[in-house]
């Protein structure tokens, strides 16, 4: 191969790699998504957690703009009407969404983004960006999920029951929604983080054929 051809091939490969990818992580509330994600973020370069917007109340330990962008329902709906969200959905009577500006600016800069969103949002992202990697994180069992929800002591009894019902309902669509993607079990935190890390590393080496920017319990 000539030097000119080699340089050209190298440039084309660099262009393919420059585009950041979306890693969409979903799973029931209380499964430990945040803890697993934080371990992976600490170990891998060029990957960030996208900060979602929500209408739910801020918990005492949470910071606006870091944990979530906390919005009023009116503000959230206005942003929806102005097409400011890449994806948005309603979960447990609260609204959640990913800002389009975040996705476009960070992936355009070559940064991989983790979107911690529910299954509704994951479905939207899959349609918008076929190169997005969908990962569903499940607990080892419903009893363990209930224990984790109760141990964190942030939920009312009604909310615990609602979240467990949602988790059971989600299981019915896993085989369809995540066919060709990934389902991982958070039994031991560190082991689950290693699995997630391995998925990210492997997917970074897979050519998707679409290097251009994305449009708009077993």
Question: What labels describe this entry?
Answer:
218 residues; alpha/beta; four-stranded mixed β-sheet; disordered C terminus
Structure description:
This protein has 218 residues and is of the alpha/beta class. It has a single domain, classed as 3-Layer(aba) Sandwich (Rossmann fold). Strands 2-7-1-8-9 form a five-stranded parallel beta sheet, sandwiched between helices. The C terminus is likely disordered. The termini are far apart. 46% of the residues lie in helices and 18% in strands. Strand 5 and strand 6 form a beta hairpin.
List the topology elements:
Layout: H1 3-18, E1 22-26, H2 33-43, E2 47-49, E3 53-54, E4 69-70, H3 73-81, E5 85-91, E6 94-99, H4 100-108, E7 112-116, H5 119-128, E8 133-138, H6 142-151, H7 157-171, H8 174-177, E9 182-185, H9 189-204
Parallel strand pairs: 1-7, 1-8, 2-7, 3-4, 8-9
Antiparallel strand pairs: 3-6, 5-6
Low-confidence stretches: 5-16, 211-218
Helix content: 40-55%
Assign the CATH superfamily.
P-loop containing nucleotide triphosphate hydrolases
Cα-based radius of gyration, to the nearest Å: 18 Å
Order of helix and strand elements from N to C terminus: HEHEEEHEEHEHEHHHEH
Strand content: 15-25%
Total tally of structural domains: 1
- Give the CATH topology: Rossmann fold
Largest beta sheet: what is the strand line-up?
A: 2-7-1-8-9
- Mean pLDDT, to the nearest integer, reads 87
CATH hierarchy: architecture:
3-Layer(aba) Sandwich
Please count the beta strands (DSSP E, at least 2 residues each). 9
Q: Describe the largest sheet.
A: 5 strands, parallel
Count of helix runs: 9
Q: Mind telling me the CATH class?
A: Alpha Beta
N- to C-terminal separation? 51 Å
Q: In one word, what is the shape?
A: globular
Structural class, please?
alpha/beta
């Amino acid at each position: 191969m000539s030097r000119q051809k080699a340089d050209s091939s190298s440039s084309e490969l660099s262009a393919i790699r420059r585009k950041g990818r979306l890693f969409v992580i979903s799973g029931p509330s209380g499964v430990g998504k945040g803890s697993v994600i934080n371990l992976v973020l600490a170990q891998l370069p060029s990957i960030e957690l996208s900060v979602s917007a929500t209408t739910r109340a801020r918990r005492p330990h949470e910071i606006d703009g870091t944990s979530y962008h906390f919005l009023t329902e009116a503000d959230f709906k206005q942003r929806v009407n102005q097409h400011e969200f890449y994806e948005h959905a309603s979960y447990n009577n609260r609204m959640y969404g990913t800002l389009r500006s975040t996705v476009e600016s960070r992936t355009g800069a070559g940064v991989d983004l983790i979107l911690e969103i529910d299954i509704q949002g994951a479905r939207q992202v899959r349609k918008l960006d076929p190169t997005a990697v969908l990962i569903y994180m499940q607990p080892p069992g419903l009893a363990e999920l209930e224990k984790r929800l109760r141990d964190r002591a942030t939920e009312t009894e009604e909310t615990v029951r609602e979240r467990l019902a949602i988790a059971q309902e989600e299981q019915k669509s896993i085989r369809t929604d995540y066919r060709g993607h990934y389902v991982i079990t958070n039994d031991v935190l560190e082991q689950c983080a290693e699995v997630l890390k391995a998925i990210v590393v492997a997917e970074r080496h897979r050519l998707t054929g679409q290097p251009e920017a994305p449009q708009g319990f077993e």
